[in-house]
Each structure stands twice: as structure tokens, then as C-alpha cells.
Write a structure and sequence with these properties.
- The protein is 41% helix and 15% strand.
- It is of the alpha/beta class.
- It folds into 2 domains: 143 residues, Aspartate Aminotransferase, domain 1 (Alpha-Beta Complex); 278 residues, 3-Layer(aba) Sandwich (Aspartate Aminotransferase, domain 2), CATH 3.40.640.
- Strands 4-10-9-8-7-5-6 form a 7-stranded mixed beta sheet, sandwiched between helices.
- Strand 2 and strand 3 form a beta hairpin.
- The longest helix has 22 residues.
- It starts with 7 loop residues before the first helix and ends with a helix.
- The model has no long low-confidence stretch (mean pLDDT 97).
- The structure holds pyridoxal-5'-phosphate.
- Pyridoxal-5'-phosphate binds next to helix 6.
């Protein structure tokens, strides 16, 4: 870190409160200031180059230097820099994007609705669901079931859906009407000898017990990520989504697929819902929709959701919900061009092919003394680190080993993120096999460098 009083680092410490950061520790360590990007790489102000193994925040599908997105933004900015969709107004990029998203959806869908972030989209999903229940004359049907370790964002309602302690502690969350059911993490939570199918059946039973205890007539929806992302890249065990959906159908509970990470190719299919046979009523999209070059998110809803909402808006006189920047024309133009690039360059196929290479290379590390579990699908993976493989015990405090290895990885030229003791990998979808090799080699060196600290006796 540049210690001069007027350095960017010093000014960052002086003026900037960071997202998801220990603000006191930051005053000592300072920031990593990223200056530019090129393909799967980013460079800091000191000129150090890194493989961005998280695609920023699980989001930059097409890499960090895609000229066509810059041109799409510039064209739209010159033509119509802002408009909105309030009061029946529309503009071409939004009409095109709505049509594209509804047509791309893997299940029959009816309408797209636009927001600016994953959190806003999930808050909007909750409001749509409540509005629908009232429209149907079922005002008691307001509870939404999410999952422990699920991640759905940070606004008040979305953070309540999120099932992670750091998003609730000292924020006085969750709000009422949000329930959390079990995490589908077989490696961590299965009973000894319990198969994946048996574990999935037990989780579906847990869900049904929760529904019955609360009263099925009070449960409006279930929300889940096809693969849990920020909760540690938890890949659902065999049979999980099938068994969960059987419970939801039995009690007429809506299903919201939060595709904010999985959407647009991450798992080797266009949507995570396809990879896991999920048939959602609402799909929540963001991040890779525009490769995060500009903020935009969307909900795609089916007629079961749209029709009652339309009736209720007619009764009241309007659907009283909308964001100034929702469906911004420049962001919509960038999203359209980004989706075009994903299709043209078959980045979904690349996620499948190069993803298989990433998964195979990481699985070779399963025998490393610090590796507890390797999991993932396509171009999303996590390696869970343990101090003791048999007991799955962490090294001292939970997350200490994750932070140690993540720091070493950064020194070795790879930016990743540790979710507790799980090191996540979610690189841009354009990554090549050679770049995956460089990434995994650096990870292996980092694990080896950590080992003497974790096991001083060897
Ligand atoms: C699955 C999922 N849903 C929602 C969100 C929230 O999105 P945002 O940070 O844009 O509010 C995230 C962000 O990481 C996410 O991973």
C-alpha cells in the first residue's frame, strides 16, 4: 500500500466506507485499488495483474474489456440517455429486452419487469407476491420461505430472505413473514451414511413440516438460488429440487428462482433452472444480464403471477411500484448486446466445456490435506478448506483458513473470495482452459504455502 498521505489508498481510508468490509481493519490495511481490466484480468494501480476468478461479483461474463458493450452504451446514450416505463411509457431497448427475456425463459413466462439490482428485484418479487395474494382474496397468504445460507441481497426485505447471520446481526432483521428452511449441503449436514437422495427427502420433509406448522394457507412462496452462491457455492444434492417442488405444488406455493448468479450461462445451461429441472413462477435476473457493465435487473413472471396483479392494478387504478432507473435505456441496450454476445460466442457452451476442465482440475486437489470438499457445476465452484479432514474441523476460528488462503491467492495473482472457509471460483465465461490452469496452479501453490502455517509440525 502507498503510505503517502495523499495516495489513493490514504484518501480511500479517509473518505470511503466500504461494502462488506471490516471498517476498522480497513483503516490499517487499506484498499486494493483496481485501475483497469482486460479479458479475464484486472490490474491494480501498482501495475500488478490478476486473474479475476470471481468475474468481479459473479457477474462479468464477457470479460473486462468488451468494446461492443461500450459501443452499445455510447450509441444509446447519444440517442436517448434516459427514459422510463411509468404510466405506459416505453422505449425500444426495453421492449426488445422484455421480449428477449420472456422468449429465452426455459418455462412459459408472460412478462418482464425491470429493476436496478438483485436486491431490488427480490424486494419487488415479495411485493408482487403479497399484492397477488391480496388480489386473490387470500390476505393471510404472505409468508415466504427462504433457506439458511441462501443469498438474496441486502435491502430490508431481500436481506431478510438472505439466510446469513452477518446480514441480520445489528440490522434488526429478518422482518416478519420470512421463514428459513434447511440448507441443501450434503457434505456438511448429512447424517452418517445418508445418501444424497435420502438427504434431499429429509430436507423436503423439513419443508413440509414447516409449511404444516405455519399453516399452508399462510405460505405464499418459496425462494431459492439453483446453486447457492454467497452462502458458499452449495450445489444441491441429487433429487433436491424435484422433491422440494413436489411439496410446493402440493400446497400451491409459488416458486421464485433467484437466477442472479446462475442466469446467462454460469452452470453450462442458459439458466440454472434448466440444469436442475426447476420450474419457477418468477425468475430473478441480474449480474450477467449486462455483465454488470451497467446496473440492471429483471423479473420474469408467468401468467399465474401476472393475471391477478393486472386485476388488482385495475381495481386500485395502478400497480403502485416502480424505480426511476428501472429499465434504464442505456443499461437495457448494454444487456441486449451482452446477451447477443453470450449467444454469438456460445459462452454457455464454453462454460460447459471449460467448466468441466475447471471442475476436473479442482477435484484433483481433493486429496490435499487442507481440502475438505470440492464442489461446483460449469464455471462456478468452491473448495472448502478444513484443518482436519476427518472431523471437518476449521483451523481455529471459522473463516481464518479461508482468509489466509485467499490472501495467499491474491499474492499469487488471483482474485477470489472466501465465503467462510470456502474459496469460491466464478471466472468470466470467456475463460480458456490455459487460464483455468494458471488459476488452479496458483491456488495449489497457495494451499501448499498455507500448509506449514496450519500444521507447523508438518
Ligand atoms: C443470488 C443473488 N441474489 C441477489 C443478489 C443481490 O444482488 P445485488 O447485489 O445486485 O443487490 C445477489 C448478489 O450477489 C445474489 O448473488
Amino acid at each position: 500500500m502507498d503510505a503517502r498521505p495523499n495516495s489513493p489508498e490514504a484518501r480511500d481510508i479517509r473518505y470511503h466506507l466500504h461494502a462488506y468490509t471490516n471498517a476498522r481493519k480497513h483503516q490499517e490495511t487499506g484498499p486494493l485499488v483496481i485501475e483497469k481490466g482486460d479479458g479475464v484480468y484486472v490490474e491494480d494501480i501498482a501495475g500488478n495483474r490478476y486473474i479475476e476468478a470471481m468475474a468481479g461479483l459473479w457477474s462479468v461474463a464477457v470479460g473486462f474489456s468488451e468494446k461492443r458493450l461500450v459501443e452499445a452504451a455510447t450509441r444509446q446514450m447519444s440517442k436517448l440517455p434516459f427514459y422510463h416505463d411509468f404510466g405506459s411509457k416505453a422505449h425500444s431497448p426495453l421492449i426488445d429486452l422484455a421480449e428477449k427475456l420472456v422468449q429465452m425463459a426455459p418455462v412459459p413466462m408472460s412478462k418482464a419487469y425491470f429493476t436496478n439490482s438483485g436486491s431490488e428485484a427480490n424486494d419487488t418479487a415479495i411485493k408482487m407476491i403479497w399484492y397477488r395474494s391480496n388480489a386473490l382474496g387470500q390476505p393471510a397468504r404472505k409468508k415466504i420461505i427462504s433457506r439458511k445460507r441462501g443469498y438474496h441481497g441486502v435491502t430490508i426485505a431481500a436481506a431478510s430472505l438472505t439466510g446469513l447471520p452477518n446480514n441480520h446481526l445489528s440490522f434488526d432483521l429478518p422482518i416478519a413473514n420470512i421463514l428459513h428452511t434447511s440448507t441443501p449441503h450434503h457434505w456438511r449436514d448429512a447424517e452418517p451414511g445418508e445418501s444424497e437422495e435420502q438427504f434431499s427427502s429429509r430436507l423436503a420433509d423439513d419443508l413440509e413440516k414447516l409449511v404444516l406448522a405455519e399453516g399452508p394457507e399462510t405460505i405464499a412462496a418459496f425462494i431459492g438460488e439453483p446453486i447457492m452462491g454467497a452462502g458458499g457455492v452449495v450445489v444441491p444434492p441429487a433429487g433436491y429440487w424435484e422433491k422440494i417442488q413436489a411439496v410446493l405444488s402440493k400446497y400451491d406455493i409459488l416458486l421464485v428462482a433467484d437466477e442472479v448468479i446462475c442466469g446467462f450461462g454460469r452452470t453450462g445451461e442458459m439458466f440454472g433452472s434448466q440444469t436442475f429441472g426447476i420450474k419457477p413462477d418468477i425468475m430473478v435476473l441480474s449480474k450477467q444480464i449486462s455483465s454488470s457493465y451497467l446496473p440492471i435487473s429483471a423479473l420474469i413472471i408467468n401468467d399465474k403471477v401476472f393475471e391477478p396483479i393486472a386485476d388488482e392494478s385495475a381495481r386500485i387504478g395502478t400497480f403502485g411500484h416502480g424505480f426511476t432507473g428501472g429499465g434504464h435505456p442505456v443499461a437495457a441496450a448494454v444487456a441486449l448486446e451482452n446477451i447477443k454476445l453470450i449467444e454469438e460466442r456460445d459462452l454457455v457452451g464454453n462454460a460447459r466445456k471449460v467448466g468441466a476442465h475447471l471442475q476436473a482440475r479442482l477435484r484433483k486437489l481433493a486429496s490435499h490435506p487442507l481440502v475438505g470438499e470440492v464442489r461446483g457445476v460449469g464455471l462456478i465452484a468452491a473448495v472448502e478448506l478444513v484443518a482436519d479432514k476427518a472431523s471437518k474441523a476449521p483451523w481455529g476460528k471459522p473463516a481464518a483458513l479461508g482468509a489466509l488462503v485467499n490472501g495467499l491467492l491474491q499474492q499469487n495473482g488471483v482474485i477470489s473470495r472466501n465465503m467462510g472457509d470456502a474459496i469460491a471460483f466464478c471466472p468470466p465465461l470467456i475463460i480458456t482452459e490455459a487460464q483455468v490452469d494458471a488459476l488452479v496452479d496458483a491456488f495449489e501453490r497457495s494451499l501448499d504455502a498455507a500448509l506449514p502455517q496450519v500444521r507447523p509440525q508438518g
